[in-house]
Design a protein that fits this description.
single chain; about 500 residues; alpha+beta; 5-stranded mixed beta sheet; two-stranded antiparallel sheet; 18 helices
Length: about 500
């Protein structure tokens, strides 16, 4: 038997006492609570938060799972208390790139939120967060083709439900409607891209297939949402002239993206008129005449062969619209009554949800789109009554990669660091048709993996830009120089891009 000296025993006891006193409070708590004591969930939450902050997401997920399990044991399967644990778990799974597992947890989270969160601001935020998740999953291409179509419907439906909930919570004239409306704009871009309309998108979505014939219908389907945003900003929120110009540019970008060049130029020119101090006033007679002229000129060809120049055919009879709605802007009417705003959101629905989504007599998107397109046509052909009545500001003076929509990452993300000898450096111009031309490789480093820098050049050529405007017409930009990090070429994420030199790069 080994004999310890009295001095050794005292030193050991002192060491144990010091370790006990200096141990984290959380450690002490975990030793005093039972395995399923509700306080144990709070301890696990604190530990998981610490692990997440240090990037240890795998360990954090295990803690959060245990916390959620304790919550369900004590309060039931639909316990509201498990919501923060689920959300944090999904955040860690996303950081670990475990998107399939995160998606399964997101479905469960949605069920718990639907069962436990009453109407109100928290409900709006929950619906917006669900829509953002499905948008992210869609851009990351985690689904097969058939599943991605259902995912597209979920993106739209969650944003639409968030809009309806926001109207019920805040009223139809609140600035808090904008997040849902802007989300619906993103959903329309995603839907258009899914149908083969437009150009390169952020994320991993494959944009090789093109469907030029779908451009006109995509434009008319998405326009009512943007008209509603314009009317909300202009007529109720009292948006500045800069905000009004931005709303017109948003509609111009949508028309440009979907290949409706003539409509895009109308919106861009109205925005330029505002920037030059003009006062815009609707003139129905002139608008109708211009609309007829557009219909007659629909067959005109553009130099850019892959852009559909045609606009809406005014000779075709539009769908019947309720008399109470006819003659009023969809967006303006939405401010007085929630129903028309709900109507513009009723077109793309989850399978088997028609009876639920169309309650309260909401109209179909087709009717709303017809009315909004008529109204937008008139507004896009407004006469400029007087000029130089307001301070001027500059717009459309540099090329902008599309889609330039809040909440969507750019197709090629720009970074601020200076380029180095290991970067791919290219120069190009943006043509009057919004495409990268005169692409020249200034520095072409060797590839570090099987996916070389040429993939960045291919992506650049597939991008669509809002062009520079000079004297009211699109023009070719000055030379732009971009540098791309070699570490990004083989990444599953969009390549990082940095602007260099005195260019018009955005």
């Amino acid at each position: 038997m080994k004999v310890f000296s009295a001095e050794h025993v005292m030193l050991t006891a002192l060491t144990v006492a010091i370790l006990t006193l200096t141990a984290p409070a959380v450690w002490g708590q975990t030793t005093s609570f039972g395995a399923y004591d509700p306080r144990q969930a709070e301890v696990l939450w604190n530990e998981a938060t610490r692990l997440q902050n240090t990037g240890q997401h795998l360990e954090a997920v295990e803690k959060l799972k245990r916390a959620g399990h304790i919550s369900r044991i004590n309060e039931g399967l639909n316990a509201r208390s498990q919501l923060p644990y689920l959300r944090a778990e999904i955040a860690s799974l996303r950081a670990l790139d475990e998107l399939a597992t995160a998606d399964e947890r997101q479905v469960y989270l949605s069920r718990i939120e639907a069962a436990t969160i009453p109407s109100g601001p928290e409900k709006v935020d929950a619906l917006l967060a669900q829509a953002e998740w499905h948008q992210y999953a869609l851009l990351q291409s985690i689904d097969e083709t058939e599943e991605s179509t259902l995912r597209m419907a979920r993106v739209w439906n969650f944003f639409r439900r968030a809009l309806n909930e926001a109207i019920a919570t805040y009223g139809a004239s609140s600035v808090k409607l904008l997040p849902a409306l802007e989300g619906m704009v993103r959903a329309q871009y995603l839907l258009a891209a899914h149908r083969g309309v437009g150009a390169a998108m952020p994320g991993q979505m494959d944009r090789d297939k093109r469907n030029q014939a779908a451009g006109k219908s995509s434009f008319k389907r998405g326009l009512p949402v943007m008209v509603a945003i314009q009317a909300l900003n202009r007529d109720t929120l009292g948006g500045s002239r800069e905000t009004q110009a931005d709303d017109l540019i948003r509609m111009g970008d949508w028309a440009w993206w979907t290949g409706n060049r003539r409509a895009a130029l109308d919106y861009y020119n109205d925005a330029l008129a505002l920037a030059n101090g003009a006062v815009l006033a609707s003139d129905d007679a002139d608008a109708d005449a211009d609309a007829d002229a557009d219909a007659d000129a629909d067959a005109d060809a553009d130099a850019d062969a892959d852009i559909d120049m045609t606009f809406a055919d005014k000779s075709k009879k539009e769908p019947d619209v309720d008399v109470a709605v006819a003659g009023s802007s969809l967006g303006a009417l939405a401010l007085a009554n929630a129903e028309p705003v709900q109507a513009l959101a009723a077109g793309l629905q989850e399978p088997h949800q028609d009876s639920v989504d169309n309650e309260s007599g909401t109209r179909t998107l087709a009717a709303g789109a017809a009315l909004a397109t008529q109204t937008a046509d008139k507004e896009s052909h407004q006469s400029h009554l007087q000029t130089d009545l307001h301070p001027k500001f500059r717009i459309l003076d540099r090329p902008v990669p599309l889609p330039a929509v809040p909440g969507l990452d750019p197709v090629l993300a720009i970074k601020q660091d200076q380029p180095n000898e290991r970067d791919l450096i290219v120069s190009f111009n943006v043509s009057a048709n919004g495409k990268a031309v005169n692409v020249e490789v200034i520095q072409g480093p060797e590839a570090e993996n099987s996916r070389g820098p040429e993939r960045v050049i291919r992506r650049l050529r597939k991008m669509r830009f809002r062009p520079v405007f000079k004297d009211g017409v699109p023009a070719e930009s000055d030379t732009i120089t971009w540098a791309v990090e070699a570490s990004q070429w083989g990444s599953s994420q969009p390549a990082n891009v940095t602007s260099s030199g005195g260019s018009n790069a955005t």
